[in-house]
Amino acid sequence: MIVGVDIGTSLTKAVVFDEDGTSVASACTPSEVHHFAGGWVEQDLDQVVATVVTVVREVAARLPGPVTALALTGQGDGMWLRDESGAAVRPAISWLDGRANSLLARWQAEGVTREVFRRTGSGMFPGCAAAIMSYLDTHEPEVLDRAVVAGYCVDAVLQRLTGEIAVDVSDASLPFLDPVTRRYDEAAIEACGLGHRRALFAEPAPAKSVFRLDARGAALLGLPVGLPVTAGPFDLPASAIGAGVREAGDGILTAGTTLACQVLTADTTFDAEGEPAGMFLCTPDEAEYLRAMPAMVGTAGIDWVCALLGIEVAEIDPLLASSEPGARGARALPFLSVSGERAPFVDAGARAQFAGISLETGRADLVRALCESIAYAARHCFEAAGLSGRLYACGGGVRSPEWIRIFADVLGRPIVIPSDPGVGARGAVLTAAAALGTPFDRERWAANSRVVEFRPENVTAYERGYADYQASLSAARGLWRL
Predict the structure, then answer these.
(1) Domain residues for 15?
(2) CA distances from 384 to 124, 196, 294, 375, 378 (A)
(3) Is the peptide bond before 233 cis (omega within 30 degrees of 0)?
(4) Which of 165, 183, 375, 443 has CA 20 to 30 A from 404's CA?
(5) Where's the Carbohydrate kinase FGGY C-terminal domain (predicted)?
C-alpha cells in the first residue's frame, strides 16, 4: 500500500499499484500555473501542497488497508525558495520561466555555460536553478536573504510533510553536481557568481533515504505520524524507472509538457567540447546515470495549435490521419516556449516557424507538420543522448495512436508503451520499495506493455523530412534574437 504521488507542473496524481504493477486506485487534481508578462511563470507552494493533500486523502479513503508509505516524485528545475519552516518566501519560479533569458545569453557569450558543462556534464537554460538564482541575486536579493533553502518542487513538499530539508540527487544534478562524486562542484557554483549563496543549496540525500511524516504532515494527509516517506527521483528519472528502462543504451521518450528524451548509461564520460546542453542525471543506483535531453517542445505546442485553429484535442488523431507523411509540403520548427530551447541545444531566443504553406494547406497539414517537427526534435535529442537499445514512451502524447506512430516512423524503431499511464508514480513507488526493503518482481511490473511498430514504407520520407528539419534549424539559429 505504497501511495505514489507525481506532482506535475499542471497536474498532481496519486496512484496505488498491486503486486503486478497495475494501478488499483488513483486520483488527480490540477495545479495552478501562473503566466505573466516577460515570460514569467510561477506557482504557489501552498496550492501545490493542497493538491497533494487532496489526491492522497482521496486514494487512501479507497484502499482496503492502511497506507504503508508515501513515495513522492514530480517536476524538476525551477526554484522553490523556503524558510526554515517550509513556508515559501516568494512564489515558486517554474522551469518554464523565461525571466533569465538575457542572462543565459550573456553566460553563453562569456563561456560560463561552457565551463559549467565541462565540469558537470549538464547544460543550463533560463529555467534552471543557476540562472534563476543569479537573476534573483540581482533583482530580488532580499528574497534570497530571507530564504534558508533554494530547492525544487519535490523537496519543498517533503519539507512540508516531514520537516526535513533535503534534496534528491537527481534534482541536484542540474547544474552544479559532479555526477561521479555526487557532490556539488564548488568551482561550477563560483563560475556563476553564486559562491556567496552556496548555503542555500541543500546537500543531496544519500541513496535509499527514508523520511517520516511529522505531526504537521500527518494532520494534513490524515495518515499516521512516522509514516515512511521517500522523495525522488524527480519525474524524468522516475518515469524511466517506472517504464522499465534497465539496460545501458535503453531510452524513454516522455511526450508531455516537455519532450523528455533520456538514455540509461553507466559511462560517466562525455564530450566536454560538445554542445553544452542536456542533463547528466544521477539515479538511485550509484552506478547508473541518465543522459537526458528534455526539450521545451511537447504537448504545450499541441494545445497552442488547437487553440489557434479552434479545435479540440480529441480532433488531433482524425486530422493526423487525413494528412499524409510530409504534411503535403508543410514544415515546422516547434520551438514555441517563451524561454526558447534547452535540448539538444540551448538558445533562449529559439522560436517556432511554419514553412511550405500554400492556399492548398489545410488544418490537418498544419497539425501534422507540427507533430512531425516534434518527432524530429525527439530524434535530434536521442542522437545527442546516444540511444542504442529499446525505446519506451509515456506521457499524454502517447495517448494519440497517430502521433505515436509518427514518432516510431521518424525514429525508425519500435516503441514500448506501458499499459498504465502513471509511470512517474510507478517509478517513485519502485524506488520507495527498494529503499524500504519491500520485495517486488521487476519483470512482472514491466510486463504490462504494448509495442508500436514503425512502418518501413514511411522511413524514407521521414529521412528526407529530418534532413530538411536539420537544414531549417541550422538556418534559423543564425536569425534568432532575444
Answers:
(1) 2-237
(2) 16, 34, 11, 14, 10
(3) yes
(4) 443
(5) 302-435
